[in-house]
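Hey L., structure's done. Input below.
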Amino acid sequence: MATALAPPKEVEKFDRTQGRDELNLAEFPLFYLGQRVPKGLTSLTYETELSDTVRNRTVNRRFEIVATEKYGLPTVVDADVFFALILIGKQTHNLTSQTISFSRYQLCELLGWTQSGANYKRIETALKKWVSTTLFYDQWWDKGEDRLRKLTGFHLFSKLELNDHSGRTKQLELPLSSLRLSDELFQSVTSGTIKRLNLADFFHLQLPIAKQLYRFLDKRFYRRNTLTFDLQTLAFEHVGMSRNYAPSKIKDKMKPAIKELVALGFIEDASPEERFTKRKHGVYDIHFKKVGGETIGVLPLPGSKTERSENRQLVKALVDHGVTASTARELVENPDIENDHIRLQIEVLEWKISDPDENPPSRPGGYLRKAITESYDPPKNFKPKQEREAEAKRVMQAMKERKEAKALRDKAEQDRLDAEAKAKAKQQARVNAYLAKLSSNDRETLIDQAIADAPEGMFKSYAVAYRRNPKVGAIKKVGYDAIIEAHVLRLLGTPDKA
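Output:
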């Protein structure tokens, strides 16, 4: 294979929304759904029934992917590389040549990966997987011959030549790598058995199930906007989920992927009861409705990678607040509307909803659209989120400081009380030790003397009453004990504090 020397198309000029998917391949998963392929698993098989309108019959359509033990089955990462390569071929020479010239620098940029040796190796592994993986397809639609036929043992790519490497930067300046479309794939592509695949959306999706659902539904939405499938047939044969899954498990696995497609603006949201309907015990249908008008993915998101990511987030924020996906897309891509203006109106809406003194709009999505397009002024009492958060932070800080100050005061008071109690206990111990050394007569004499020397007052009256009759009660004993203790402390040379 001759080495391509002409400079490739610059990455920023590739339109990711104009990817391509072969129609026969779009029916089935091209990749294993998990992150890691289980050891020993080297093949995947899918089967569905197909209506052959030419011969007026129903046939069994079977697709099998067989990988080598050395490289293993393709995963979703390898599928990303495959579609990026087809995009390069489409926009470089409109897939009119079997040879696609590329660089791993280009692929990393298209895929949004960093330029690194690890990612270059990742791409190399993906390419080797595709070159070595064999496909078997029973009932392949041949548009050129207008019939279904059986393809046995074919590949998607062949004759891989890698010339670029990770030792230098800016691979655009190096001789290009290349690979060749297989005769079977090239014949199908040139006969028109191919459809547009929006890779801006496809690469944006995170879940493998969401990516495969996107491919399959995107093909089936061609003729109608609403689709219904048998849940297990869709999951097992068109998405590639484990056939061991019960319907409840399938639904659990489907829901996050469906949520991604709804957030993308590809399909309409629906309640679980609307999404999944029961036909009989253990048998369910699943329903999808395409978002009307222009979806988020119909037009390319403009700008750099950072700007595209920012626009995605804005579109999602608008959709989350009730704006339709198509309107959200139009607002974000309108050159006369600044992103900061959209963020401000979203902030005002969130403030109206959260502030108990405000009347939130009954239709947030409609309000938000008008607020953006008609440039509503924020209410006079509106405070930006940053200011509200700063104010809330100040309040919380003040509360924290007051709490800490009270805790310090409480601790100081407790320490004082503890010190007094300790001193009191020490004094009481000295008094008890002194009294214990006295004879019974001396103790009685001391008690009489203590009461006689005590100043007139309540405590003395209590002590006199208790001395005469110990049964008068505990309150009287308090005065009695206090007078004796004060007398003993005076004898011991300790100031009387009673």
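The CA atoms of residues 230 and 285 lie 5 Å apart. The radius of gyration is 41 Å.

-- N.
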